[in-house]
Structure formats: C-alpha cells, structure tokens
Specification:
about 575 residues, alpha+beta, TIM Barrel, Immunoglobulin-like, 3 domains, six-stranded antiparallel β-sheet
Length: about 575
C-alpha cells in the first residue's frame, strides 16, 4: 500500500468540524451504549462459548432488562489474515461463525457488537484492519447482522499511531517554517505572523515549529481549548490579484516536525501535500511557487497541518459510508477507539456515537479464571481517576446531537479496586454520560451481591440514560475554586461536586472525594448555582425531595443548599433531587 493519505474533501476538513453537520446518515439521539465487552475480562482469549455464557448471565441476572444489551467481541475473534480478501472467524474460538452468534444473541433479546481497526492490523497483530478494505468489511458486518462496532487505531499508516512507523508523523505535522515570500515581499514567520493554538512555538527566535495537532493519547494536556496550531500571516493587497507564494521550510519525520503542508487563504485551501524532504530540520530551502488569489484589502494566509484529525475522521467516515450504502436503514452504534489521539471531541460526532478520550483504562486484562487488575490512581491513563480527570471537563463536547465522551470500559469487578472505589467509579461514569460497558466476567456476579448492586443500581443507570442526554458539569472543585467547569486538574487530592439536569425539572448531584484520604469540610452547592449553570433546565423551587442512590434514603431539603461535610477515601454521595410544588 502506498503511504499517501487520501485527498481530503471539504466535508471532513478542519474548517467543517464545528458546522454541526453529520456525515453519511449518522443517526442523532442515541443515548450512551450499555452492555458487555470481552476485552477487560478475557483479552484476546475470548471465545464463542464464553460469549454465550456472558449473554446468559446478562439475561439471568436481569441486567439485560436494565439496559445492558450490547455484547461486544473485542480483539482476537478473527483469523490472523484475510481469506479471499475478507474477514473470517477464528474457527477454534468461534466455530459457529459470527452470523450464528448474532442470531443467538438476537434471539435472547440482546445485540451483537464487533471490533476492528482503521489501521492495517488490529492491536493484537492480526492483519485484518479495515484500512483499504472498508467496502468489503462493511458488507461483512451487515451480513453478520452487527449492531455495534468498536473501531481501534493501531497500525494506522497515516500517523505515528501505536505499532505504526514513528516516522509517519511526517504526514501530520507541517515542516518548520522560517518565512514566506509573496511577490517581492518577504514575511518572517517569527516577526510577521501569529501563532494560533498551543502546539506550535518559536525555536530560538529563528523559525516556527510544531504546526499540527497535539497527540491526546496520554493525560498531559487538557482537552479544552484549541488543540491545533496554525501560522497566520496578514497580507494587505491594494487590489484583487493573482500572486505566488513561496515558503521557506525544513522538514522532519517525528512528532512536532513533518513534511506535509497545508495552505489556505481565509477558508479556501489551496495546497495540501508533502513537500520535498530537506537534509535536516534546520536546513531550510524554498518551496516551489504556490499560486494564490488575494482579495483587495486584508488577507489571512494560513500555514498549517490538520491531517492528524482529518485523516482519522476520513478513515472512520469511509467505513460508515459503506455501512450505510449496504444497509441504509440499519442503525449500528459506532464507537471510535482512537484513544483521544486526534482530539476526537472536535470531529467524531460527525460520524460516531462515542469516542475514547484516552488510551486504555487498564493494560492488565484478565483471562478465563483471572479477573485482571485496575487501579484507582496512576500517572498515565491506566486508572479510574486519570480517565475521570479528563472526561469530567468535556461536557461541552457531548450530547444527543453529538455523541458521548468515552473514558473506556468499567473496571468494576477487577482486582485492585475496593467496593467504595467501584461505587464511585460507577457514579462518575453515570454522571458523565459515559457508555456503560461492563468489563468483568459476569459468572462472578450473583444477584443481590455487592458487585451486582453496583452495576444494577437502577437510579444511577437512570441518571446515565436520562432522556435529556446532558453530561454533568463540575460546579465545585476544591483545587479549582474559580474555574471548576473547565480547569484541567490532575491532582487527585480534592473534592468535586457534579450536577446534571434530568427530565421533569429534576437534577442529580454527586459529591466525589477523588483522593485516597478522608476529606472534611463544608462541601456545598445551591439550586441557584445549578439553575444558572444549566440556564433554566432546573425547576424553580425551595422545597426538594432528595434520594440517595446508594442508601435509597429519602430526605427533604427546604433551603436549596446541598452539602456534605465528610467523605471517606474515594467515597461519593450521589443524590437525585426532585423539586416539590
């Protein structure tokens, strides 16, 4: 396969991300998915037999009736290579084939989900990724009557994604830029241009570097605000005229410095291609002339590279396009598992129902007999709090008209988390409208036991599945008192208060001790603060009925002040509040 990204159409271009349009008939209005995924429980060792046993557990435990209906096969279910160009089942683990398994699940009132990758290979290595095979794979998924698709981002040839060539970063960053020429006039990138966003910077007062998009795979950077950078020159012209633009550049093949340049005048893109490689990142040369058209007056010449986002959107969009061509009326939930690498909160709502915000929540998955391991806290993405810290400030990106931020599967039932942490994990995900995908071996759950009472908490599930589809906002943070909604706080030694509107003027409040120490204080929020934050979606009242979703106790509140004075380590208190007439 020639390593050259597709030509990007206007509908998947950076300037179209925020226009509110969906592509290829993507359906709006789906609530967060609920179900079971095989990866955390069994890794690549899942089988047809285990899948059927999990489906039986969903039914016998009554979890299906609570909304857990999607049964999703993750990595490890296909043969390692294509057969006659098509995907096929691994015959030892899935001897009956995928269509028979789908029929079995559908007969039980469940829905069937599968996994693939926008790269050439799946993350576990099988050479069956959708890249270059979108049409035939879409046909296979329709033939297998699939209801849900989780699509990963390993071995992606147009970016330095996991297991792909690191030098492929050359596609997703512009070269270093020293200056441009338009006609006889030269403009310095350092002195005469504006850098947008927070990625690019000036190197030693000589040139601008880092023209591209942050890699969001890890938790270092906030998801809020501009995640991409451009270099913008303001050029005045006395008349409308044709002109030639030359760019003084030096290329690289690593994160931050690439070979692919995009040029636009205002919102009209006029150049989008690789430039000839230079000997080093500091050996500058001039490009060939690029013809541009200037309008009379002020013109904005944009030098940039948005290919990290555009390439990935284009790849996810192609699969959706062929799914809709094969079965226009079939609504397949579509989950982008690209780990937040390309800031999918900016674009994924055009084609997907949910999008992962970070790399995996755990790399210590289980097998048949080992529940695997999850952590409450961690420096990278492998913990409840790493995922929560990012997702909790991303409410502006989610909704029924967009889709859902996905902080990965629930780790409830894995080793490493105690019951308090499991309860708070569930409360966090429900308040944030995250997909509720169970990741435990359901044979370990008994109806009425501690694990069951967490994952089957009807009140919490009703918060997650509320028809308004509004993600909670963090209205109080003990470490970000002045800007709690969007401040990116990674220090877990804090208390957060989340609020979420519900149907019929009700609302939910969750007091969360993110830390592993007892927290004491006057942690409080008022109905007026909540009403102001959600612009009238909360009914006016000074009398409220307050239901604790864990203890099931109901109390009355007559002052509109909701407070907690003590929280045990990792404890959460979550209430559903109903205004009274």
């Amino acid at each position: 396969m020639a390593l050259k990204p597709d030509k990007i159409g206007k509908e998947v271009s950076y300037d179209a991300f925020a226009n509110g349009n969906v592509l290829y008939g993507k359906k709006k209005g789906n609530l967060p998915a609920m179900g079971w995924n095989s990866w955390n429980a069994f890794g690549s060792g899942n089988t047809e037999k285990l899948t059927k046993e999990m489906a039986e557990c969903l039914c016998k435990l009554g979890l299906k009736d609570l909304g857990y209906v999607y049964v999703v096969l993750d990595d490890g279910c296909y043969k390692p290579e294509r057969v006659d160009g098509k995907l096929s089942n691994e015959e030892i683990k899935f001897p009956g084939g995928f269509r028979a398994l789908a029929d079995h699940l559908h007969k039980a009132g469940l829905k069937f989900g599968m996994y693939n990758d926008v790269g050439t290979n799946l993350c576990a290595g099988a050479a069956v990724g959708t890249c270059g095979h979108e049409r035939e794979d879409a046909r296979s998924y329709i033939d297998w009557d699939v209801d849900f698709l989780k699509v990963d981002n390993c071995y992606y040839p147009y970016d330095n994604a996991t297991f792909s060539n690191p030098e492929n970063a050359r596609f997703v960053y512009a070269p270093n830029i020293k200056s441009i020429k338009i006609g006889s006039k030269k403009y310095s990138a350092v002195k005469d241009a504006q850098i947008t966003g927070k990625v690019a910077s000036v190197n030693n007062s000589e040139f601008v570097t880092g023209l591209g998009t942050f890699d969001g795979t890890g938790p270092r950077y906030s998801p809020v605000g501009s995640r991409s950078s451009e270099l913008v020159f303001t050029v005045n012209s006395k008349k409308e005229e044709e002109a030639e633009l030359l760019v003084e550049y030096a290329t690289g093949k690593r994160e931050g410095v690439g070979e692919w340049l995009q040029v636009a005048v205002e919102n009209e893109r006029i150049f989008d291609a690789l430039l000839p490689a230079t000997d080093s990142e500091k050996d500058f040369t001039w490009s060939k002339a690029i013809k541009i058209r200037l309008q009379k007056g002020e013109n904005h010449i944009r030098l940039m590279n948005h290919r990290r986002q555009e390439n990935t959107l284009n790849s996810y969009a192609k699969l959706l396009k062929y799914l809709k061509e094969a079965a226009p009326e079939k609504d397949i939930l579509y989950s982008a598992c690209e780990w937040g690498k390309t800031q999918p909160q900016n674009w994924a709502g055009k084609v997907c129902d949910s999008w992962r915000i970070l790399n995996d929540i755990t790399f210590c998955v289980g097998n048949d007999g080992d529940p695997g391991h999850g952590d409450w806290a961690g420096d990278y993405t492998c913990s409840v709090t790493s995922q929560y810290n990012k997702a909790v400030i991303m409410e502006e990106f989610s909704g029924l008209d967009k889709g859902w931020n996905d902080p990965d599967m629930l780790m409830i039932g894995m080793n490493g988390l105690n019951l308090t942490q499991n309860r708070t994990h569930m409360s966090m995900w429900c308040m944030m409208n995250a997909p509720l995908m169970l990741g435990l071996d359901l044979r370990r759950v008994k109806k009425g036991d501690d694990l069951y009472n967490i994952i089957a908490n009807r009140e919490l599930i009703s918060i997650n599945q509320d028809p308004l589809g509004i993600q909670a906002k963090r209205l109080y943070c003990s470490l970000a008192m002045n800007r709690p909604v969007h401040s990116y706080v990674r220090d877990i030694n804090r208390v957060d208060i989340l609020a979420k509107p519900l149907a019929d003027g009700r609302f939910a409040i969750s007091f969360i001790n993110v830390s592993e120490k007892t927290q004491k204080g006057d942690f409080a929020i008022t109905d007026e603060q909540i009403r102001k934050a959600f612009k009238g979606r909360i009914a006016e009242s000074k009398r409220f009925e307050v239901l604790d979703v864990w203890t099931k106790e109901t109390k009355n509140n007559r002052d509109g002040i909701f407070r907690v004075r003590k929280l045990a380590p990792c404890e959460s208190v979550t209430w559903i509040v109903t205004p009274q007439a």
